[in-house]
Structure to design on (218 residues):
C-alpha cells in the first residue's frame, strides 16, 4: 500500500458501485481504496485486521443496516471516519447518519466532484455534507431545538428500518430475518410505528409504508 495515502474502505453490496467508486478514488493522488466489503460483518472483519482511515458506507446493506454498522464502527474503531454514500434522500437520513457517528453524507446522484470534496472535507476534520444539510444543521443549532417535521422523522432508527423494509414489500418474518431480530420484536416495533403515525391497524401501516417508499424517500 502506498505510504502517505488516505486509506478508504468501500462498503456496498453492489459490485458495480464499488468498482465505480474505486476507479474514482484511485485516480486521486492522495487517496487509495484499501479494501471492499459487501456486508457489515465483512467490513468489521476488515477493519479489525487492516489499517483504515475512512469507510464509505451505503445505508442499505445485505442483511444488515448501514446505520447500525456506523454505530458499531464509532464504538469499536473510533479513529475510522465514516461517510455515507446512499440513494436515500438526505432530508430523511443525513441527520440520523451524523448522529450515528458518520462525518459525511453524499447521495449517489451527486457528481463525482462532490464525492471527492466530501472525502477531503472529512479528511480535514470537517463535515462532508451538502450546503442544504449544513444549513439545516446550522438552523437547528441556532434555534437550540429540533425543527418540527413529519411524523416519520420521529421514528427511531430501528423503527425507520422496519418501516422501510415493510415499504419494500417484506412481511414481518422477512423483516425479522433481515434485521436479525425476532418476529415478536418486529411486531413490537410495528405497534410503536402505528402509534407514532396514528395508524389504526396493520393494513394502514403497510399502505403508509408502501406510499412512503414509492415517494422516493427511501
Amino acid at each position: 500500500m502506498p505510504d502517505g495515502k488516505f486509506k478508504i474502505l468501500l462498503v456496498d453490496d453492489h459490485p458495480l458501485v464499488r468498482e465505480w467508486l474505486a476507479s474514482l478514488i484511485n485516480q486521486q493522488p492522495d487517496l487509495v481504496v484499501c479494501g471492499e466489503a459487501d456486508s457489515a460483518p465483512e467490513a468489521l472483519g476488515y477493519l479489525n485486521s487492516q489499517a483504515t482511515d475512512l469507510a464509505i458506507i451505503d445505508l442499505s446493506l445485505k442483511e444488515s443496516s448501514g446505520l447500525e454498522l456506523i454505530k458499531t464502527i464509532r464504538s469499536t474503531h473510533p479513529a475510522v471516519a465514516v461517510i455515507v454514500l446512499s440513494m436515500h434522500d438526505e432530508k430523511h437520513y443525513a441527520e440520523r447518519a451524523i448522529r450515528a457517528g458518520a462525518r459525511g453524507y453524499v447521495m449517489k446522484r451527486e457528481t463525482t466532484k462532490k464525492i471527492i470534496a466530501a472525502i477531503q472535507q472529512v479528511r480535514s476534520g470537517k463535515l462532508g455534507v451538502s450546503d442544504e444539510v449544513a444549513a439545516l444543521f446550522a438552523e437547528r443549532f441556532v434555534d437550540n431545538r429540533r425543527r418540527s417535521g413529519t411524523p416519520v422523522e420521529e421514528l427511531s432508527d430501528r423503527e425507520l428500518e422496519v418501516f422501510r423494509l415493510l415499504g419494500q414489500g417484506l412481511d414481518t418474518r422477512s423483516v425479522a430475518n433481515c434485521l436479525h431480530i425476532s418476529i415478536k420484536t418486529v411486531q413490537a416495533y410495528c405497534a410503536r410505528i402505528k402509534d407514532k403515525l396514528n395508524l389504526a391497524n396493520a393494513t394502514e401501516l403497510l399502505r403508509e409504508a408502501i406510499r412512503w417508499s414509492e415517494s422516493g424517500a427511501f
In short: The chain has two domains: 6-143, 151-214. The longest helix spans residues 183-197. The chain is about 55% helix and 15% strand.
